[in-house]
Amino acid sequence: MTFSELINSIENLANLTNVTTEVIGFSTFNNPIYAFHVGSFAGKQVFMEGGIHAREYLSTLFLIEEIKFLNEMYQTNQFSKGGFYVVPLVNPDGVALVLDGIKSVKCEIQKQVLTLINNGSNNFNLWKANGLGVDLNVNFNAEWGKGDQNRVCPNSENFIGFYPESEREVQVLLNYIKQTNPGLTISWHTKGEVIYYGFYTLSSNSLARDYNIALELSKVNGYQVIKTEGSVGGFSDWVSLNLDVPAYTIELGSSAIPHPLTESNLQIAFNQNKQVPVVALEQIS
Ligand SMILES: [Zn+2]
């Protein structure tokens, strides 16, 4: 799959009846960041994002299919109240590197910098960061810089940025979520078939609430429920700290499959997880 094929599948979602499409901002390299709303604006809302880690673009492919699935359910009255805000590709520059390699970058000096960070290789299959070598899911202002694996220089993964929320993609996502008043959030990643919950700043009441809903989601996809440890600065961490609504990070795909998981892994992940957002909405309604 090429990056332009992936973008075409995202843009085609705009043709769906009843789905609201908008460009909520642009990445560092000026790629549009799309958001979609499915269902009713009345009632509780689930907020989901994917493709924040570049090599984990299976999460974007999943959300594209999920938007169609949820819209089909809504149109056939399988749920009538509540809706879903979905940002399927938070990190387009990074995913372009994984899918198209260094030729996806226009600036010559930046090509050299990225190749240097990537140890001289044009194989970006394992790249997680954005186009500046910042790992977006440790760039949020949620105990930023206190993570076990944090790095302080540009890297393919784990570089926290020079300051919290330095990255345009993170700013765009935060600007958007602040407009949506979500009742629950899901951050989709690969891999390991795990549901992470429970940022360490949560009160015991919130922790119990989030654990109980995680168990309900786990009944749907069969994934293991694990309390997050040693991870900070992520999207779910930010939600837990600032919104105090249930926030989950779900890792699609078996841990036995090597990164990057591709479209060949989509069907299994989709069948396992397509009802997860629906059950999440029921849990908060
Ligand atoms: Zn990830």
Main attributes?
single chain, 285 residues, alpha/beta, Aminopeptidase, eight-stranded mixed sheet, 9 helices, 8 strands, binds zinc ion
Bound molecules: zinc ion
Strand order of the largest sheet: 1-2-4-3-5-8-6-7
Beta content comes to 15-25%
- Rg value: 18 Å
Write the layout of secondary structure elements.
Blueprint: H1 3-12, E1 20-26, E2 32-39, E3 45-50, H2 58-75, E4 83-87, H3 92-100, H4 108-117, H5 168-177, E5 184-190, E6 194-197, H6 204-221, E7 224-227, H7 235-242, E8 247-252, H8 266-273, H9 276-284
Parallel strand pairs: 3-4, 3-5, 5-8, 6-7
Antiparallel strand pairs: 1-2, 2-4, 6-8
Helix pairs in contact: 6-9
The chain binds zinc ion.
Notes on the protein architecture:
The protein has about 280 residues and is α/β, with parallel strands linked by helices. It has a single domain (about 5-285), classed as Zn peptidases (Aminopeptidase), CATH 3.40.630. About 35% of the residues lie in helices and about 15% in strands. It has an 8-stranded mixed beta sheet with strand order 1-2-4-3-5-8-6-7, sandwiched between helices. Strand 6, helix 6 (about 205-220) and strand 7 (about 225) form a beta-alpha-beta unit. The protein is globular, with a radius of gyration of 18 Å. The mean pLDDT is about 95. It binds zinc ion (ZN). Zinc ion binds near residues 53, 56, 137 and 189.
What's the short story on this structure?
With 285 residues, the protein is of the alpha/beta class. It contains nine helices and eight strands. Helix 6 runs antiparallel to helix 9.
